[in-house]
């Protein structure tokens, strides 16, 4: 039986596969499944040619396996790799005639979740007629929506299936352009009931369709231009549509409700129930449209507006001045002063803007809003709360390693290396069983096409360690050999690709991911050597506190271990340890180093921990001293280091400060305004005492692990920020997911670090305040809020960055002003004072008025009112010039009066 299948496949006798399968019993077909799966793997292997690639199997061989899979497998095993079978409709029909699987109907019904199908609406009707499929409404609606040409071919289509289309349309794409003209034609011919279709369009608002599909139904409703009588009849659906999560749907409902407000049948009471949610929307067009309908209702002078009056107060959830002004005008014009209205507005008193408060003086208590000042917590990088959990046993290590794989490039990676050094030889016949799932996870991770570079190192280390354990515990770890063999087979299929780097070999021979990763590979190789030699001397660079810090006392104690053992530490490990060390509080560590250390260790740390100390002693390891100097005082040049041979490294990389400017490149319409940062080129120069830093600055290519280098240079972040800015933030309109991912990961790492910013830090933060991604901007606001609370934010420097960008309109001003209104305004008294300083220095950079400058001035005026301050005197001249602009005249005059 197996031999016959091999013969059919090898000789490509596609015409013989169906007669062969027909003669088999059900049990024999089941027995063939493992063979079919094996053959499928073989013919699916990729074969590379000079200019292209293809699978090892021919078209006939793939057809043979497709048919055999369909006939012999159950639904679960057949999976979703079935579309090619259905391309040959005649062949599919023949197979179904004699061997339609019991699961075929469910299988086809489930196809609505597939990305692609090789059958269509007509095929489904044909199969249904023959009893192969009992189609669900979802299946018919989905497939009909993909084919507008089938509407009039079958009587049941317009009668029944078309309405399934309204309820269950395609999830993947909007309707084709032919649909609307065709539906209008069929409605005109009375083949589709107009009123029913209008109702279905409105019901689409709450059917959880995607944005495109919902939008299509709204467009269809608008194109049909319903009369006022029809709108009155559809009031239930129009009102319920106001609760839609899609803003286009809500706006469509409001536009049509506005047309029938004057009709006596309009249900004001029902509309008032929806109004608070409408006015609380984050979408300004929804709020504005809600206010427009509300005003129309008040113009009717109806008596049943009591609920509407109190609901109107929800408009003050918005901090947009135009919205609040519009709402306040409606209140003044149509709603008399009453205790009930005062009570309703009191809930939003904190949110009512300074410019609006005087207008509502009769309705609200117009006292100045008093916010509490923030009681600043002292910012501590090293404290008990962030101390990492120390490992105590081999079992602890087995628990940690999967976490390290799931969090590549974080302190988990450091702890994993340290744990392997300390506990690798402590496995016994009982505990070693815990290693199998760790080994399996490492193999599964490393076998992927795209693997984080830190995981390449860690998983390779775990796998090679596992092979050592397998020799020692062959019985307990017998499954490791099978897992490893399968992983090697998977990797072998990829080796034909020239871009693929083999990951399953000795750690010293693998590709770590480029120059920047070389120091980490070097340290990982050292760890493996420690494992094989039984050397338990700890690494110097393992963090002691989240997310990336080593306490200075711990660094002294580790140096003492090397001193007492008379072991020379690894050069790059020493440098990474110095870079990781927190220099926030070093007085105790200074005393400890003076007592416990001697020679170069002592002199190095006395210099490193004392900001005012000069380097002295024997400089046996120039790279240690240079790294200590850069980390401690990047802005200083030490005369004592002049003969170390590092003078060829551009000064920008040593200080971490790079020149930048926002430039108007009008010649380039794609990037009209660019953030231009000068990052010099550097080529790695092989030297006896290589700096850890050199590997990163010599790396030319962009790669996803760059944000992880924040943890390697936490005291000197400038070069990492410069790299991200140059590659990902040169233009505010950049939309690539990859670049945005890098920026977001960098922003989140900066937020997690909680360290005061340096020059490049302010440039990065100021730039991401204007980023096109909402999550990135929100992270920027969180960083600002926290740094203001800790009194470590220089708002003048931050304002200069934002102002220099926006004076050339690097990004839409609205991104920033919306962020301020929704996340940064009125957080506390201190935050409002910080905002005043921030806006002052943004405006000081401005010259001629930019688009939406008024929005910045409106918020500045609001902040001044909250702080009971006046506009900065250095701004007076600019304001006098700007008030010549008609759109700015009013706000400039208000600011000049302050």
UniProtKB/TrEMBL annotation:
Q: Give the protein's recorded name.
A: DED domain-containing protein
Query: Taxonomically, which superkingdom?
Result: Bacteria
* The DUF6493 domain, residue ranges: 2-285
Residues in DUF7825 domain copies: 657-897
Question: Mind telling me which InterPro entries this protein's record contains?
Answer: DUF6493, DUF7824, DUF7825
Which organism is this protein's natural source? Answer: Chryseobacterium luteum
- The DUF7824 domain covers 384-650
Name a Pfam family for this protein: DUF7825
């Amino acid at each position: 039986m197996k031999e016959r299948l091999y013969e059919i496949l090898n000789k490509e006798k596609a015409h013989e596969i169906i007669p062969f399968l027909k003669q088999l019993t059900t049990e024999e077909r089941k027995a063939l499944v493992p063979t079919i799966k094996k053959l499928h793997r073989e013919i699916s292997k990729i074969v590379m040619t000079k200019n292209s690639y293809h699978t090892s199997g021919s078209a006939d061989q793939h057809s043979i396996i497709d048919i055999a899979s369909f006939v012999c497998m159950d639904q679960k095993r057949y999976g979703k790799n079935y579309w090619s079978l259905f391309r040959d409709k005649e062949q599919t029909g023949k197979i179904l005639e004699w061997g339609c699987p019991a699961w075929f109907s469910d299988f086809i019904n489930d196809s609505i979740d597939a990305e692609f199908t090789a059958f269509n609406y007509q095929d489904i009707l044909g199969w249904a007629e023959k009893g192969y499929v009992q189609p669900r409404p979802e299946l018919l609606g989905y497939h009909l929506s993909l084919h507008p040409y089938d509407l009039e071919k079958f009587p049941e289509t317009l009668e029944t299936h078309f309405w399934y289309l309204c309820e269950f349309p395609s999830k993947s794409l909007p309707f084709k352009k032919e649909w609307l003209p065709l539906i209008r034609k069929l409605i005109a011919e009375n083949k589709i009931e107009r009123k029913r279709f209008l109702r279905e369009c409105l019901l689409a608002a709450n059917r959880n369709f995607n944005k495109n599909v919902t939008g299509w139904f709204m467009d269809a409703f608008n194109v049909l231009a319903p009369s006022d009588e029809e709108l009155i009849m559809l009031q239930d659906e129009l009102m319920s549509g106001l609760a839609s999560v899609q803003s286009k749907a809500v706006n469509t409902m409001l536009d049509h409700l506005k047309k029938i407000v004057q009709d006596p049948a309009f249900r004001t009471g029902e509309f008032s129930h929806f109004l608070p949610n409408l006015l609380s929307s984050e979408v300004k067009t929804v709020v504005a449209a809600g206010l427009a309908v509300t005003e129309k209702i008040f113009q009717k002078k109806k008596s049943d507006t009591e609920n509407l009056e109190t609901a109107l107060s929800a408009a003050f959830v918005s901090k947009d001045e135009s919205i609040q002004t519009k709402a306040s005008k409606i209140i003044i014009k149509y709603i008399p002063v009453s205790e009930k209205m005062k009570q309703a507005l009191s809930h939003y008193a904190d949110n009512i803007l300074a410019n609006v408060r005087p207008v509502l003086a009769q309705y609200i208590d117009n006292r100045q809003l008093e916010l509490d000042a923030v009681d600043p917590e002292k910012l501590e990088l090293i404290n008990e709360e962030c101390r990492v959990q120390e490992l105590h046993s081999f079992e602890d290590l087995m628990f940690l390693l999967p976490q390290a794989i799931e969090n590549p490039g974080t302190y988990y990676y450091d702890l994993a290396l340290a744990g392997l050094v300390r506990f690798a030889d402590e496995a016994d016949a009982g505990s070693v069983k815990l290693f199998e799932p760790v080994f399996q996870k490492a193999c599964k991770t490393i076998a992927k096409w795209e693997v984080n570079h830190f995981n390449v190192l860690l998983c390779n280390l775990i796998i090679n360690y596992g092979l050592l354990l397998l020799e020692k515990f062959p019985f307990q770890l017998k499954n490791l050999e099978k897992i490893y063999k399968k992983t090697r087979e998977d990797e072998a299929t990829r080796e034909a690709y020239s871009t693929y780097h083999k990951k399953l070999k000795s750690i010293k021979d693998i590709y770590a991911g480029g120059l920047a990763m070389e120091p980490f590979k070097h340290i990982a190789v050292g760890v493996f050597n420690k494992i094989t030699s039984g050397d338990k001397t700890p690494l110097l660079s393992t963090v002691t506190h989240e997310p990336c810090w080593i306490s200075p006392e711990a660094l002294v104690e580790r140096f003492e271990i090397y001193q007492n053992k008379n072991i020379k530490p690894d050069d790059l490990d020493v440098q990474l340890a110095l870079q990781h060390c927190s220099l926030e509080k070093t007085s105790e560590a200074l005393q400890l180093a003076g007592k416990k250390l001697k020679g170069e260790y002592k002199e190095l740390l006395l210099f490193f921990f004392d900001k005012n100390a000069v380097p002295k002693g024997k400089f046996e390891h120039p790279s240690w001293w240079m790294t200590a100097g850069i980390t401690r005082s990047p802005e200083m040049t030490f005369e004592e280091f002049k003969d170390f041979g590092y003078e060829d490294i551009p000064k920008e990389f040593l200080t971490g400060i790079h020149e930048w400017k926002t430039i108007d490149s009008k010649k380039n319409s794609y990037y009209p305004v660019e953030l231009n940062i000068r990052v010099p080129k550097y080529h790695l120069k092989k030297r006896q005492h290589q700096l850890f830093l050199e590997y990163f600055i010599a790396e030319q290519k962009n790669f996803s692990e760059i944000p992880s280098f924040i943890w390697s240079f936490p005291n000197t972040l400038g070069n990492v920020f410069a790299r991200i800015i140059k590659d990902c933030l040169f233009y505010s309109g950049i939309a690539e997911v990859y670049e945005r991912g890098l920026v977001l990961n960098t922003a989140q790492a900066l937020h997690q670090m909680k360290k005061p910013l340096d020059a490049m830090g302010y440039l990065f933060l100021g730039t991401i305040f204007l980023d096109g991604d909402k999550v990135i901007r929100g992270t920027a606001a969180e960083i600002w809020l926290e740094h203001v609370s800790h009194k470590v934010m220089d708002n003048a420097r931050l304002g200069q960055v934002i102002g220099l960008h926006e004076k050339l309109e690097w990004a839409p001003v609205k991104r920033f002003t919306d962020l301020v209104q929704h996340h940064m305004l009125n957080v506390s008294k201190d935050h409002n004072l910080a905002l005043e300083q921030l806006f002052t220095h943004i405006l000081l950079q401005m010259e001629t008025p930019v688009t939406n400058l008024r929005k910045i001035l409106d918020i500045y005026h609001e902040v001044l009112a909250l702080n009971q301050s006046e506009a900065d005197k250095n701004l007076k001249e600019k304001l006098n010039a700007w008030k010549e602009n008609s759109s700015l005249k009013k706000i400039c005059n208000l600011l000049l009066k302050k």
